[in-house]
Design goal:
The structure holds three protein chains of three kinds. Chain A is an alpha+beta fold. Helices cover about 35% and strands about 10% of the residues of chain A. In chain A, a hairpin with a 2-residue loop joins strand 4 and strand 5 (about 165). By secondary structure, chain C is α/β, with parallel strands linked by helices. Chain C is about 40% helix and about 15% strand. In chain C, the strands form six sheets. Chain C has a five-stranded mixed β-sheet. In chain C, strands 2-1-3-4 form a four-stranded mixed β-sheet, with helices on one face. In chain C, strands 9-8-7-10 form a four-stranded parallel β-sheet, with helices on both faces. The N and C termini of chain C lie far apart (about 75 Å). Classes of the chains: A alpha+beta, B alpha+beta, C alpha/beta.
Chain lengths: ~180, ~200, ~650
């Protein structure tokens, strides 16, 4: 799997005043072509034990898990719908309502906390006008928190559409938000 | 296998749990999530007992722990009572309807507060519908304090839920018969639970 | 790529790779772990490639993107071999200098070197204090390997331990060696791996599983991420050796989905290993079959618990099961399953190659070998460090970590993640050792080591961890679900200034039940952050409850910000930065914070220039009255404005 190009990250190192170009990939993944739900299920040979993996791919493709899709998964995997719902509501990675086009994630891990992530979260909440796990009414933004991304030396860390930022000052945060369409 | 429960010598087959062995010897260990028709769950922790073997003592839940030769079991000790009491106090916060049972343990005034759901999440309804009726009309939604029991809308809508109402008799708090409102399950469908969660945030 | 069908084939391949590599050939390695990647290491690597090409040196200099070097605080990290020259904080604009001065002229670029507190520069990686005191036995190869190149791994001796195990040792002999080494689980439990392997091996059943636990949910820990991203083959080799010993032919690598680069690099490694015949059917011609599937997590800390993880592999919700019947006997689909942490597996090839006697010569009586820690928080040199068991916390934090940032005072070090505890200064000389740490109310855990200073509120820390656990509790059992919830409510009250006498005792009462009656280790260890902070920092709790004071000035509800009129020099920096315009003032006019508007964000406190230090935190007593508006600034004697 080729790494592909990643946007110039912002943060401690300023690599010039490059405006955020539309990224082709996130860190470590390849661009996914829109797949129908059936294709994803077939990829896993309709294996019951791959339920979580299948839902992860559907979530990534759609930005949420629509009700009809859950029913298709239940049917094709021969897993009771109750079980599919149970999994879909247990894990943080899944959303049962459409998420915004742009995902803002603030890390609330211990190292980030000690370095001030609650304050960063406050600022992001104020800027986006939504609270964690909410999506803005115009479907533009979704804000989430995550319990540790593993970049603790750069804390507090915020990820916007797969791009990592280390404690962005208010001006940079405003620019990031403005760049989202 | 030979074990001792509350000073009484009890014989039990391999593979039986302490709870079952005790029952066969006429000793009742209190439970909340246990149902002999269902796979033991180990969720309420109410059936905790103290066991000793080879000089080592520890606390285990008797509905799930299999009997062993030479095991010494105490179903009531100050520690066990302390645990049961605290468990009740904690459950009382979200299920005040348990106040009668709580009084039996000497709990008069509840010290804790929580969102009142009248559900202790014993899971008997969910498990019964899955294991015995095989209808899977009920499930758990969410996790942690946000965990709720809910009816699956599509299952109910399609009539797969047989409206057998057998879950009614299982519910230790009586929530299901009280809130199910006949055959329409208003308020405790998955869609309701998720909507309530979203409303709580705003 | 032809399949290797014997140990001799493997050795031939190794020789072939080495013959094509000149150990003296200059090689520029750029750390490309997630941390440095975020700081722009990709651009740095590209800049190197293009600048080297511009200088016509492409054939003469190798450029290698490697896994994490560990010195995350100072990334992007570049190490130039064979000299071992280490450049820190490298930017693409530095590359022309590096290439012309270091590669061509063999001169150092001084500004990119590490400099110690005396201002002296240190050129070589091995001499930098951060690295000097480490023993990077497991992690060290990260700097020499491109994780996407199996050849790099083989060049360093990779898979020789597997060949030795498969052809020169019986499964019993491998087991004996691992048991003798006393390798204890690096994921936190500290259970002897050899004993677990033996139980799984002896359990009845033909189908057995081996599992890599890469769920690494402890916030603040990223050792496993860096190992998987940087040296996936080391983990795989250990896993195959384990499978051979236990008699398993199918393995799982459970990786949390928050680690996309780790998932990718492991996938690439598996493919490459299969192509070489090191994975799959008839490994190296030994007749032993074994293959591996990757399974991703979906955002649940509790699913990293071993029984929960196995349930998740089955496709069900990842909730823990009672462990009265061990998973080594009945695990995934009720079959014997051996689960170990990433670091544990990665240590196995070393033990097989160098022997248990060598391994036991390192460490303490009860804790052998080395451990990788993520040293983070208020310490100068944050990053990943690998030290022999038995090194003191003080040495790790001060010798390697370089002490506390901004010269503040050390307050506590937290180990073991949400299951661990906070240790005060009086315990700094404690050695890192499974049992020593458990004795004082903490634990080794997966290796998170979070350093806290005078500006950290220990009640807030307890609240933070309990909030985390409340979020992550599966909710199945009452003592964890409801017990942690009530503890969070009490801690929130205390931090909001609504603490009541008896709160500490109530917390302790709940802790006892949660510890003794919870179903799994999440609930059983949840009391640790509370009990350890109550034990060592009880005075902070009492200040919050009795005096409504937060000594560290953290809990917003108990803190007010005040500008000392005697110190304010009216520079207007705080005024301009206040997000709610709560500060009034002007040039030469003392600034005043409107307490009614103030949101306690603390921005003014942080931006006030240190030489003035006019903004102070007030807690536990009324805010001093503001000076009358329009008061002029008191100039320091002799200072011109």
């Amino acid at each position: 799997m080729a790494r592909g190009d990643v946007k110039p990250p912002k943060g401690k190192v300023k690599t010039g005043a490059e405006k955020a170009a539309p990224s082709t990939t996130k860190i470590g993944t390849q661009e996914q072509e829109p797949n129908s739900v059936e294709k994803i299920i077939d990829k896993y040979n309709s294996d019951k034990s791959a339920l979580i993996q299948i839902l992860l791919e559907i979530q990534k493709q759609n930005r949420w898990l629509p009700r009809d899709t859950l029913m298709v998964v239940s049917e094709k995997l021969s897993v009771p719908l109750s079980q599919v719902y149970r999994v879909a509501t247990f894990y943080k990675a899944f959303s049962l309502i459409p998420q915004g086009r742009h995902l803002f994630t603030v890390c609330m891990g211990t190292a980030c906390h000690v370095r001030g992530s609650p304050r960063l979260l406050d600022r992001v909440e104020d800027t986006l006008k939504i609270k964690p796990e909410e999506t803005s009414t115009d479907q533009k933004f979704t804000l989430e928190t995550v319990n540790c991304l593993g970049c603790c030396a750069l804390g507090p860390v915020m990820v916007v559409d797969g791009e990592y930022h280390s404690n962005p000052p208010s001006k940079e945060l405003a620019e990031l938000v403005a760049a989202c369409d | 296998m030979k074990l001792t429960i509350d000073g009484k010598e009890v014989e039990a087959e391999e593979g039986k749990t302490i709870l079952e062995a005790a029952k066969s010897a006429g000793i009742t260990i209190p439970t909340l999530c246990y149902n002999e028709k269902l796979v033991p769950y180990g969720g309420c922790r109410f059936c905790t007992v103290e066991i000793s073997k080879g000089g080592r003592t520890r606390l285990v839940v008797s509905c799930v722990y299999n009997v062993e030769d030479g095991l010494v079991v105490k179903t009531v000790t100050p520690k066990v009572i302390k645990i049961r009491k605290m468990l009740l106090e904690l459950m009382l916060a979200s299920a005040p309807v348990l106040s009668e049972l709580a009084k039996q343990y000497g709990i008069e005034k509840p010290r804790f507060q929580s969102e009142v759901t009248q559900c202790i999440l014993c899971g008997q309804c969910v498990r019964y519908c899955a294991e015995v009726k095989k209808a899977n009309a009920l499930t758990f939604v969410g996790r942690g304090v946000n965990r709720r029991v809910a009816f699956v809308d599509e299952v109910v809508n399609r009539g797969v839920c047989m409206d057998c109402r057998q879950c009614y008799g299982l519910c230790p708090t009586g929530k299901i018969p009280r809130e199910t409102d006949g055959a329409y399950f208003e308020g405790i469908r998955i869609s309701d639970v998720l909507a309530q969660r979203r409303a709580k945030k705003h | 790529m032809a399949k290797l069908r014997s140990p001799a084939d493997l050795e031939k391949k190794r020789e072939q790779i080495l013959s094509q590599r000149d150990p003296n050939k200059p090689c520029v390695t750029i750390c490309s772990g997630t941390g440095c990647h975020v700081l722009g290491s990709d651009k740095v690597a590209e800049a190197f490639v293009s600048e080297i090409s511009k200088n016509g040196l492409t054939a003469k200099v190798d450029v290698r993107r490697t896994g994490c070097h560990g010195f995350c605080e100072r990334g992007p990290v570049v190490v130039m071999f064979p000299e071992g020259t280490c450049y820190l904080g490298v930017k693409p604009t530095d590359i022309p200098d590096v290439v012309s001065q270091t590669l061509v002229d063999k001169q150092l670029v001084e500004r990119l070197l590490y400099n110690d507190s005396a201002g002296k520069t240190i050129a070589h990686e091995r001499d930098i204090p951060f690295y000097k005191f480490q023993s990077r036995l497991v992690f060290g190869n990260n700097t020499r390997i491109d994780p996407k190149s199996i050849d790099d791994y083989i060049a360093l001796g990779g898979y020789s331990a597997l060949a030795k195990a498969l052809f020169k040792m019986s499964p019993e002999e491998v087991l004996g060696e691992v048991k003798k080494s006393n390798l204890r689980g690096r994921g936190g439990g500290g259970f002897p791996a050899g004993v677990k392997w033996e139980t799984t091996r002896n359990a009845p059943g033909d189908i057995k599983y081996v599992i890599v636990n890469a769920d690494e949910g402890d916030p603040g820990a990223f050792m496993d991420r860096s190992l998987l991203e940087g040296n996936p083959h080391s983990v795989l080799e250990g896993l195959i050796i384990g499978a051979y010993t236990i008699g398993s032919h199918e393995g799982f690598i459970y990786v949390r989905q928050e680690y996309p680069l780790a998932v990718e690099n492991v996938s690439v490694a598996l493919e490459q290993a299969r192509k070489y015949g090191l994975l799959g059917k008839d490994i190296l011609g030994s007749g032993f079959d074994f293959d591996v599937k990757i399974h991703r997590g979906a955002g649940a800390f509790v699913s990293g618990e071993s029984s929960a993880l196995m349930t998740a592999i089955e496709g069900k919700v990842g909730e823990p099961r009672p462990k009265y019947i061990r998973t080594a006997v009945s695990g995934v689909w009720e079959r014997p399953s051996n689960l170990n942490n990433v670091e544990t597996w990665a240590t196995v090839p070393l033990i097989i190659n160098k022997g248990a006697d060598w391994f036991t010569s390192i460490g303490t009586k009860g804790s052998k070998g080395t451990k990788i820690f993520s040293l983070v928080g208020k310490v100068n040199n944050t990053g990943l460090v690998e030290v022999p068991m038995g090194m003191s916390l003080r040495d790790i934090i001060y010798k390697i970590g370089g002490g506390i940032r901004k010269d503040k005072k050390f307050k506590a070090v937290q180990t073991g993640g949400p299951s661990g505890g906070c240790l005060p200064e009086s315990l700094l000389d404690l050695p890192v050792d499974y049992d020593e740490l458990t004795k004082v109310g903490s634990m080794m855990g997966s290796g998170g080591m979070i350093v806290m200073d005078e500006d950290t509120c220990m009640v807030d820390v307890a609240r933070y961890f309990l909030n985390f656990l409340a979020d992550e509790s599966c909710g199945k059992c009452v003592p964890c679900r409801a017990g942690i919830d009530q503890m969070v409510k009490i801690l929130n009250r205390i931090c909001e200034g609504k603490g009541q006498p008896g709160d500490i005792e109530l917390l302790e009462e709940i802790c006892e039940i949660t510890r003794d009656a919870s179903l799994c280790a999440l609930g059983q260890t949840a009391p640790n952050p509370v009990l350890s902070t109550v034990q060592f920092f009880r005075d902070e709790y009492k200040a919050h409850i009795d005096e409504k004071r937060c000594p560290a000035g953290v809990c917003k509800a108990l803190v007010s910000f005040y500008i000392d009129p005697a110190k304010c020099q009216a520079c207007q920096i705080c005024l301009k930065n206040c997000p709610v315009q709560a500060i009034s003032g002007a040039k030469n006019i003392v600034h005043i914070i409107d307490q009614a508007k103030c949101t306690k964000c603390g921005t003014c406190y942080e931006v006030c220039p240190q030489r003035f230090s006019a903004v102070v935190k007030v807690s536990g007593k009324p805010v001093p009255a503001s000076p009358p508006p329009g008061t002029e600034v008191m100039r320091k004697k002799g200072k011109q404005e």
